[in-house]
Each structure stands twice: as C-alpha cells, then as structure tokens.
Amino acid sequence: MLQRDISLPEARLRLSREFDLSERQAYRYLEEATHLDGPVEVSESTMPITIKLPVGTVRLLRAYARSSGLTIGVIVTRALVAFLGGTQRRHG
Asked: What is the DSSP string of 10-76?
C-alpha cells in the first residue's frame, strides 16, 4: 500500500479491516514497514509447539536472538531445517 502511494490514514484503515487489526496496530505495522529496505519474505504458515530445553541452551538461544536480531522461532527453524535436511540427505 505504501508503494502504491496510498495515504497512511487510508492504508491504516484498509489494513485494519482486511486483517481484523486495531487501527493502532495497523499503524504500527505501517510505521515499521516504512523503515524496511525491501519486501518482506512471505513464509509458510507456522504452528506453535512447546519444547523443553536445558537452561543453558535457552540462555544461549536468547543471547543469540538478541545479538542477531532474529526471533527464537527463526533460529530454531533454521537449525532444525539444517539438521533434518542433512539427516534426510544422509539417510534418504
């Protein structure tokens, strides 16, 4: 919407209606989008899971997330894809 020269108030209204967001949240998303360098990669839908990890591993994971700017979900997904992808190649 921002690339199509739709005004911020109009974009906020459209976004809030289309995705059932509050206008305030829609504004936050639009404000954040103005600072992006390019389009955001659209990924496959996600599903929440609960796992238990050793405390030390969680500390390392959180520290890496903070320093890299990545979410824990992205880090875990990349690690699992690398691990499972490698396993599938070796055993498949």
From this structure: HHHHHHHHHTT--HHHHHHHHHHHTT-SSPPPP------------HHHHHHHHHHHHHH---HHHHH
Domain boundaries of the chain, sorted by first residue: 1-42, 55-91
Q: Which residue has the tokens 């990349």?
A: 78
Q: Which residues of the chain have pLDDT under 50?
A: 88-92
Query: CA 76, CA 3: separation in Å to the nearest integer?
Result: 32
pTM above 0.70, yes or no: no
Q: What is the DSSP letter of 79?
A: H
State the first-to-last Cα distance of the chain, in angstroms, to the nearest integer.
Answer: 44
Q: What is the pLDDT of residues 65-79, one digit of tens each?
A: 999 999 999 999 999
